[in-house]
Amino acid sequence: MATLGNRRNGGYARKRLWCAIPVSCALLIIISFTFIFDLGYKHREVTPEVMITPMASPSMGSPPSPVVDRCSGRYIYVHDLPGRFNSDMISSCRTLSKWNDMCPFVSNAGLGPRLNNAEGVFYGTEWYATNQFALELIFHNRMKQYECLTTNSSLASAIFVPFYAGLDIGRYLWGYNTSVRDATSRDLIRWLKSRPEWSTMGGRDHFMVAGRITWDFRRLTDEEDDWGSKLLVIPEGKNMTVLVIESSPWHKNDFGIPYPTYFHPSKDSEVQLWQERMRRIRRPWLFSFAGAPRPNITDSIRNEIIGQCRQSRRCKLLECDNGRSKCHSPSSVMGMFQRSIFCLQPQGDSYTRRSTFDAMVAGCVPVFFHPGSAYVQYVWHLPRNHSEYSVLISEDEVRDGKVRIEEVLERFGKKEVMAMREEVVRMIPRLVYADPRTRLETTKDAFDVTVEGVIQRVKDIKGGRVPDFSEAESWKYAVTGRGGEHEWDHFFNRTSQ
Ligand SMILES: *[C@@H]1O[C@H](CO)[C@@H](O)[C@H](O)[C@H]1NC(C)=O
Ligand SMILES: *[C@@H]1O[C@H](CO)[C@@H](O)[C@H](O)[C@H]1NC(C)=O
Ligand SMILES: *[C@@H]1O[C@H](CO)[C@@H](O)[C@H](O)[C@H]1NC(C)=O
Ligand SMILES: *[C@@H]1O[C@H](CO)[C@@H](O)[C@H](O)[C@H]1NC(C)=O
Ligand SMILES: *[C@@H]1O[C@H](CO)[C@@H](O)[C@H](O)[C@H]1NC(C)=O
Ligand SMILES: *[C@@H]1O[C@H](CO)[C@@H](O)[C@H](O)[C@H]1NC(C)=O
């Protein structure tokens, strides 16, 4: 049996058992992509890797510094991994998923097929049917545009490992024994440790993207029915910084970064136009929800959410539980979010959902029911004060029938709603991954924010500035920077419940 003695991990194992039933899993995994459009590569001028700008030094005594290296402290070295760790998986894309053909989704540098605008919700052309598990490919391609790459690893502030960890494990999660599931990770670790870069800091300046939820890489035992691989629990994996679409509240080595959405602008002006539209669009629905119930998860509040939405004339519901549902159509989902003031984001099979990011890109204020769904996850990308851009309603109160969501949301005045929406709209650039074949002019996208976060973290590690706290309190340090009692303790209590 699994030695996962806590509710979340225990619950996770239980939930994943449900997920072992192929039909429901296929539903879960096929997120929505049916439109195939082709797009030739848009080549854009790329600025030189290293920008040297002259600067006059006003300081006396020391000789004036003739040049200042704008990349100083920001250089990244990218490991040149053998193809079996990344590009080979793309060329054999048919083997990537047991349930659906991933080949369309690796097109366009990982963005997937271009979306058409038949329903008039996308306006521009920078929209793609992006798969939620394509982040490793998008991030790797985006890294090729990074302005401060170096081939000299001793200059680098951080070392990027372009391993497609999620695409790898995605092939073996169902029906493969633990040695198969761990094989590529072990192979990678052998390769990394044979490189001189590893020995500099024992891998603590290395980072990589694992574009699935952290629980797919946190197998604690070698029991065959325990879930996932061990990538994040082996000592080498613990030394690296791993970027995942859902991190663990109780571990130090993983950081949540946004799920990819459908929006991939390639110019600042495209982002600004979109933001302007989302500020002005008419939003007839007070709140909305897109999702399916979770009948096999006993403490899920999805039934209550769906029930409350059905009962309200001001709620719009897009149910995902039948085959003809439009909930897998990007334009239906995005169209609904654009016309809603608030978007409900309860947990699903795990804490987080891609839908949160789709909704925020549509300028919809997210309503969370657990702080694990965003606040303790995306600490580099979201404002620390969550009341500025979102609403938290405790899921316990919903489960116990103590709150009516509509009443809570109605209480916000027009001004408060406007302020929250403005905050969401201002965040949009930080939440989307720009087209990785280009680079935005001055706007920072989710990639830029992530790289800054990683570089700061490696600096803190080098400078001995990472506070020494117990792993169990990771979420608290991520949110507040300190330990002690916190009003959310009961949400993350691993011994009770
Ligand atoms: C790499 O950078 C280091 C530190 O700046 C320098 O000493 C070394 O000469 C560089 N190596 C190469 C091959 O340029
Ligand atoms: C795991 O599965 C692989 C491939 O199916 C097989 O070759 C190997 O012997 C299995 N290992 C164990 C320990 O069962
Ligand atoms: C992890 O990093 C520490 C500190 O640099 C180092 O001593 C240790 O050997 C590293 N672990 C592995 C497995 O490389
Ligand atoms: C819930 O579990 C039952 C029994 O294992 C299974 O038959 C059913 O398909 C599951 N429901 C869903 C929605 O997966
Ligand atoms: C957080 O934001 C809310 C809403 O803007 C505001 O009322 C509150 O004072 C802020 N809290 C802190 C600690 O800044
Ligand atoms: C966590 O659970 C334990 C065991 O049920 C309980 O004793 C403790 O008070 C709980 N802590 C919080 C903060 O809820």
UniProtKB/TrEMBL annotation:
<keyword id="KW-0333">Golgi apparatus</keyword>
<keyword id="KW-0735">Signal-anchor</keyword>
<dbReference type="GO" id="GO:0000139">
    <property type="term" value="C:Golgi membrane"/>
</dbReference>
<feature type="transmembrane region" description="Helical">
    <location>
        <begin position="17"/>
        <end position="37"/>
    </location>
</feature>
<dbReference type="Pfam" id="PF03016">
    <property type="entry name" value="Exostosin_GT47"/>
</dbReference>
<keyword id="KW-0472">Membrane</keyword>
<dbReference type="InterPro" id="IPR040911">
    <property type="entry name" value="Exostosin_GT47"/>
</dbReference>
<feature type="domain" description="Exostosin GT47">
    <location>
        <begin position="70"/>
        <end position="406"/>
    </location>
</feature>
<dbReference type="GO" id="GO:0016757">
    <property type="term" value="F:glycosyltransferase activity"/>
</dbReference>
<protein>
    <recommendedName>
        <fullName>Exostosin GT47 domain-containing protein</fullName>
    </recommendedName>
</protein>
<comment type="similarity">
    <text>Belongs to the glycosyltransferase 47 family.</text>
</comment>
<keyword id="KW-0812">Transmembrane</keyword>
<keyword id="KW-0808">Transferase</keyword>
<dbReference type="InterPro" id="IPR004263">
    <property type="entry name" value="Exostosin"/>
</dbReference>
<keyword id="KW-0328">Glycosyltransferase</keyword>
<keyword id="KW-1133">Transmembrane helix</keyword>
